[in-house]
Specification:
This protein is of the alpha/beta class. Helix content is 33%, strand content 22%.
Length: 965
């Protein structure tokens, strides 16, 4: 502990776990006087060359004076941080505040010298880069704005650490030393560098778990059955390509194998390295196992053991200790209470899960927080009849259980640049870090479709999940996820349906849908479903029940070649008669037509055509292997594989001689750029509604991608007084926390951002009301501002178009007789605004999701129906335009039923100004403008409230850290 002479208490909030470049973890913490022996031991393991680079001279050992200096800090002007693994130092960094003359100084001096030392065995792991982020954040907290560092020219690694950090820098050379100076204010480049390093490190940490070279199952029972023995059997039967070990401390001296797998009493008895350990022992024995794994150098753990946070407060503390212990050794954890992980890559074949069968290899990445839902999803993606035909299976699967460490965010980092994954499906019951998730989702969705279904939407998160509280309703969270490019669906069925379409079909270029098939009724159902989902269907083409395979092929070919459609839905029902196509012939007809025109998505709606699905899946390389049982076709979605063969009866002259690559199409955005065109599969659905819903999600996602390519900008307004607003906010908060500004203060603050309220004057008496109206000018409005009557024109608390004093006094008397005295009603007089549409603009600062901008039509549309649109702040010009147009009642703004269109440009500008206010000043935790009357020319803000408070600390702008739940 620090001595009494130190100026500040130990800053525990500086402690953090970080992921390093190679995927391992380290703990960053302040150095204290108790670290003297650790520091000496650390220094002894540093090479002479590294010591020379640090001190510019031979420096074989630290003197007692050095040790005292490097362990005694005041945590203000002198700060030292250490990166530790296993409790031992692997690197250190310190800063010393200096004045203009370069000597030791105190505040207000705002410059400090910084120096690093990294143990040679840990150089190249990104330790120094991580420490620089943390020491810079500490320095900013202590009002240090600039670092200076002197480095020998030969120390190229350390020079690169500084120059690659992305800060504004100055570089000079004198007396044989390179002097670097750089400002600590984060820049766009420094933030981009930090996030790129975060992505590489976190992706690597997940990759180490999913592609281990060796696995040990700890807790594999001596007899068949049980969790550990089941996982061991699943690993062996999947054909894991690495080394596999069984561990059970109850093994006898002569027991050397379990099921043909080398067996040991402890992981420490294994001679070779162990990359991944699957822990399946009772929770009480897990700490011992974790310690043994850490000592043996295990890189990661999959903890399937239960008895943690899902079991109550004691289990939650046990879970926190598990994470602390594992991170001490640089290990990451899947779980606890996890179902396991799967990697179907041929060079890995890992099934470290409780799934008895490894799913088919494919290009879908699957994440499930729930083991039960994970089982259901794997089952659907494995059974061809129940969900998938062909080889659209799983690339990797992660079931995180309580997700105490590795979460969906980490797995998204891995899938972002995983060449084996084209589509990501996620089942989430909670989002631990919504800000980060939306950021990662936006980046991932730009290159790979991301489909999410949320459980626990209308209640609290599962007991095992420690998450930050959010005050946002589920509808708002869903809107924010869609803004980030997430394809939000409501059920597991919809999750699979959308995934199948996106896995091997191109994204549609627009909402126009051609419908063709041999059933007029099924075609009309599909047509109606398209209209319900906001698509633009063309009139269905009825081929009649007597349609042949040639008819289907010709009709589909024409539809795909037609520039007036963007996607095709084929409907098919069983038909009787000699001319009716068989299942195989119809399958070949659809495949060949789609193969000849690969630029548009094709879906099939089939009714009781199990044989057709089997026939289609039996063709090409996705067919069951010899000896494999052919799948059934009961319900669910199937996949048809395009082939180059012509359907029976189709002329050889048909233009289907080859399958061009998707990249050759110029009018389509592929859902999966890396996927080969000749492996495209046609999804089939047993109901029109399911097919069309999946297609509508693909259409919306394609539109989002086109818009995301040009995301818009946050505009600059020359008339904004940011400094004046900050001073006003600081002065207001000096009076107390969590306050609502008065009407005059609200008008003044909004006015600094160009948001002007229509003048309203208090009217505590009829005479005051008359004087106010005379000053404003008739006609006027008289309204109450009492909280229970505010914005309730339906209750009679507002009287409009009062043309003279007589009407005003009569209205005043009526209001007081109906609702009570003036002291209760708080009446005001306000000038009449031009006629228009009443709208609402609101913001709220959510502790989990961040600042949210909302818009809607005032009245029942927003209050009763919840018709509000939401965007994250800061909003761009594109965000503002989409806010105005995305509510269901938007036609009221654009001339509905012959009314005059209102000034949406002025409305969008208002939204952007409110967004800027909240983004510039996070102390503005809530804004409500109601009503905002938008007229054909201009708008009027008639009411406003602003609430101020100290904002919650944001952890998404600081240095990289692992969350602590």
């Amino acid at each position: 502990m620090q001595t009494s002479s130190d100026r500040h208490e130990y800053p525990a909030h500086w402690e953090a776990d970080v992921v390093l470049r190679d995927g391992g973890t380290a703990r960053v913490r302040p150095i204290t006087v108790d670290d003297a022996e650790r520091l000496v031991s650390f220094y002894e393991q540093v090479s002479d060359e590294s010591k020379y680079y640090r001190f510019f001279a031979p420096y074989p050992r630290l003197s007692a004076k050095d040790v005292h200096r490097f362990t005694h800090h005041d945590f203000v002007d002198r700060v030292g941080l250490a990166a530790t693994v296993g409790g031992e130092f692997i690197a250190t960094v310190r800063y010393d505040r200096i004045g203009a003359d370069g000597t030791a100084a105190s505040a207000p001096a705002d410059e400090a010298e910084v120096a690093f030392l990294v143990q040679d065995a840990h150089q190249g792991r990104g330790v120094a880069s991580a420490l620089l982020e943390h020491i810079a954040a500490v320095a900013r907290e202590r009002d240090i704005r600039r670092f200076a560092a002197e480095v020998l020219p030969a120390n190229s690694k350390m020079i690169k650490v500084f120059t690659d950090a992305g800060y504004q820098q100055k570089r000079s050379f004198e007396d044989g030393v390179v002097r670097l100076e750089f400002d600590l204010e984060p820049t766009d480049r420094s933030l981009a560098v930090q996030r790129a390093r975060e992505q590489r490190a976190e992706a690597r940490s997940v990759q180490r778990l999913l592609a281990p070279g060796s696995v040990a199952v700890i807790g594999a029972g001596r007899t068949p059955g049980g969790v550990g023995r089941s996982v061991l059997a699943n690993l062996r039967e999947a054909g894991f390509t690495g080394r596999l070990y069984a561990v059970n401390k109850a093994l006898g001296e002569d027991e050397k194998e379990l099921d043909g797998v080398p067996a040991h009493r402890s992981v420490t008895d294994i001679e070779g390295p162990v990359d991944l350990a699957v822990v399946a022992v009772p929770a009480a024995h897990v700490p011992e196992v974790v310690a043994q794994c850490g000592e043996h150098g295990v890189q990661g753990l999959v903890v399937v053991s239960a008895g943690y946070a899902e079991s109550g407060p004691e289990g939650r503390e046990r879970q926190r200790e598990l994470v602390r212990q594992a991170r001490t050794y640089g290990m990451r954890i899947i779980g606890p209470n996890a179902f396991g992980i799967i990697n179907t890559a041929p060079d890995v074949r890992l099934n470290a899960s409780l799934a008895p069968e490894t799913p088919r290899s494919g290009r879908i990445g699957l994440f499930a927080q729930s083991g039960a839902i994970g089982i259901a999803l794997l089952s659907r993606l494995h059974r061809r009849g129940g969900g998938v035909t062909g080889d659209t299976g799983v690339s990797t699967f992660v079931s995180s259980g309580n997700r105490a460490d590795v979460s969906g965010n980490d797995v998204l980092q891995y899938w972002y640049d995983d060449p084996d994954t084209d589509v990501v499906l996620m089942y989430l019951e909670s989002i631990g870090n919504p800000r980060k998730f939306t950021r990662l989702a936006r980046r991932t969705a730009a290159v790979k479709p991301l489909v999410v279904v949320q459980g626990a939407r209308h209640g609290s998160a599962p007991q095992g999940h420690a998450v930050r509280a959010t005050r946002l309703p589920h509808t708002t969270v869903s809107a924010l996820l869609r803004q980030a490019g997430v394809i939000r669906v409501d059920t597991i069925t919809e999750l699979v349906d959308a995934g199948l379409l996106l896995a091997r079909q191109p994204l549609p270029a627009g909402p126009r849908v051609a419908i063709l098939g041999n059933s007029e009724s099924l075609g009309m159902l599909t047509y109606d479903a398209c209209l319900s989902e906001g698509l633009r269907p063309l009139p269905p083409l009825d081929l009649t029940t007597g349609a042949s395979a040639r008819d289907f092929h010709a009709a589909l070919s024409r539809a795909l070649a037609d520039d007036s459609c963007d996607a095709v839905v084929v409907t098919a029902i069983p038909a009787l008669g000699e001319m009716s196509p068989g299942d195989a012939a119809l399958a070949e007809a659809l495949r060949s037509a789609a193969a000849a025109n690969p630029s548009k998505p094709v879906l099939v709606v089939h009714v009781e055509l199990g044989g057709l699905a089997e026939a289609l899946s039996a063709a090409a390389s996705t067919a069951p292997q010899v000896g494999e049982k052919a799948p059934g076709a009961v319900g669910g979605a199937h996949l048809f594989r395009p082939a180059e063969r012509l359907p029976t009866g189709v002329s050889e002259a048909a233009d289907v001689t080859r399958v061009p690559g998707v990249s050759e199409a110029t009018d389509v955005t592929p859902a999966h750029p890396s996927g080969p065109a000749d492996s495209r599969l046609i999804p089939a659905y047993p109901a029109a509604e399911r097919a069309v819903r999946a297609l509508s999600e693909a259409v919306r996602h394609a539109q989002w991608r086109r818009e995301a390519a040009e995301p818009g900008r946050v505009p600059e307004f020359e008339d904004i007084d940011e400094k004046g607003a900050a001073e006003q906010i600081d002065a207001a908060l000096a009076r107390g926390e969590g306050l609502t500004l008065g009407s005059e203060e609200t008008a003044a603050l909004l006015g600094r951002y160009g948001i002007h309220l229509r003048q309203a004057r208090p009217a505590p008496t009829p005479d005051e009301a008359a004087r106010a109206a005379g000053a404003i000018g008739y006609p006027v409005a008289l309204k109450t501002t009492a909280p229970h009557l505010r914005h309730r024109a339906d209750l009679g608390g507002v009287r409009l178009d009062l043309a003279d004093e007589e009407q005003l006094r009569r209205a005043y008397t009526e209001l007081t007789e109906l609702f009570g005295g003036p002291e209760e009603l708080r009446p005001v007089v306000q000038g009449m605004a031009p006629r228009g549409v009443d709208t609402i603009v609101r913001t709220v600062l959510d502790p989990a999701a961040g600042a949210v901008l909302s818009f809607g039509i005032a009245g029942p549309a927003s209050q009763l129906l919840g018709d509000m649109a939401h965007r994250l702040i800061p909003a761009t010009e594109r965000d503002a335009a989409s806010l105005v147009r995305s509510i269901r009642t938007a036609p009221l703004l654009f001339g509905w039923r012959g009314s005059a269109p209102v000034d949406t440009e002025a409305l969008e500008e208002l939204l952007l100004r409110v967004s800027r206010l909240v983004d510039d000043h996070p102390e503005v935790v809530a804004v409500s403008l109601e009503p905002v009357v938008v007229a054909p020319r201009g708008l009027s803000v008639l009411g406003a409230t602003v609430r101020l408070a100290r904002p919650p600390v944001r952890d998404d702008l600081g240095p990289r850290t692992l969350p602590v739940y």
